[in-house]
Amino acid sequence: MKKIVVGISGASGAIYGIRCLETLNKLGIESHVAISTAAEKTIEYETDYTLEQVKSLCTYLYDLKDIGASIASGSFRVDGMIVAPCSIKTLSSIANSFNDNLISRAADVTLKERRKLVVMVRETPFHLGHLRLMQSAAEMGAVILPPVPSFYHKPASIDDIVNQSVGKALDQFGIDAQLFDRWEGLPANEAVKHS
């Protein structure tokens, strides 16, 4: 059974982390979760979810200050980690190995163990410092996956946009959550199947 660590930082876009947890929960995939203090406020401000509802979606929930938690050690086997959303502060901690809380420590462990780390960086526009942090994290092995929507699937709601980004993040772990329609090519360019 897959095990995914999820960090929810305080950037705008708390719904990305929540949707990730909802999807993992629905698919029966074990989630190990740390939520920042700023994220708790963002969840309350940006969404209709209570913090207790979000916590109930986690298989395991850890205190942000608990750097002795299982997910802070490389000997604890997981398939990887998603930070959704990822604030610039959290990205900076990851890129500089500044393990001041459990989210950045778990991300650092993920990288050192050569496991998949997906960071859904939520900021716009980016200045050069942001881009350098992303470059540094990518050079260490992180997948930089800002929640940039596509429109070929003709999203009809914010949920459709959120689902597509979360689906793309979960794809990185080989999890086909079937949250969005995949590109099949333009009708005029359909390939002919030969048997």
From TrEMBL:
Keyword tags: Flavoprotein, FMN, Lyase, Prenyltransferase, Transferase
Binding site for FMN: G10, A11, S12, S36, S87, I88, K89, T90, R122
Nucleus recorded as keyword: no
Pfam families membership: Flavoprotein (PF02441)
Reactions catalysed, as given in the entry: dimethylallyl phosphate + FMNH2 = prenylated FMNH2 + phosphate
Positions of the Flavoprotein domain: 2-172
Entry's family note: Belongs to the UbiX/PAD1 family.
Protein name, per record: Flavin prenyltransferase UbiX
Protein's organism: Domibacillus iocasae
Name of the gene encoding the protein in the UniProt record: ubiX
